[in-house]
Amino acid sequence: MMNKLFVPGYLNSLAGHWQRYWFEQDIDSYWVEQEDWAHPDCNRWVSTLNNLVDSVSGPTIFITHSLGGNTVAHWCQRYPEKAAMIKGAFMVAVPDVQRDDFPKVITGYNSPPLAPLPFSSVMCASSNDPYCRFQQAHFLAKHWQAELIPVGALGHINIDANIGDWSEGKALFDVFNHMIQLRDKKQ
Which long-range contacts (CB under 8 A, 24 or more apart) does 176-182 make? Predict the structure, then answer.
């Protein structure tokens, strides 16, 4: 059994968002419930993520959207000793937190970690994401040693993209999850 730990971004992933669909369809899933979705603070969000990681037993995959991907990168930096139970991260639409127009209500994320993530990871990026140019997604993926997967022109890959449960993304996740499980059986 592989636990799926869903890490939404700024303002949460509400009903109608692909991330919420996936969470509701999987009994082995957990949702990071932040105290304040409208005013993300990196320290608080990472702490909340860590509390959930501590409460889950067994192998786990992060499934992130937007600022959730940045939160996972900061968690890895702060808690490297806990990464062993994490088997991978499926990150979608990670934003460029250094943009001039990045929301000022989001604090503590302005200096993203650039160390490799200590587990397998992929980053799905849109060619027309208003919060992250594709070149910046490539830069982050390179530093995090994540496989970059271009998914076409899907904006921020959220409700506004009108993709419902994003079946194409689910197929990508299923392949990623299968590869991790095969790798673990060989070890």
Answer: 176/61, 176/88, 176/90, 176/120, 176/122, 177/2, 177/61, 177/88, 177/90, 179/120, 180/2, 180/61, 180/87, 180/88, 180/120, 181/2
Residue 124 forms beta bridges with which residues? Answer: 92, 149
Would you state the structure tokens that stand for residue 9, as one six-digit string? 């971004």
- DSSP category for residue 16: T
CB-CB contact of 126 with 153 (8 Å):
yes
**Separation CA 31–CA 8 (nearest Å):** 8
pTM over cut 0.85 = yes
| pLDDT digits 0-9 by tens, 148-164 | 999 999 999 999 999 99
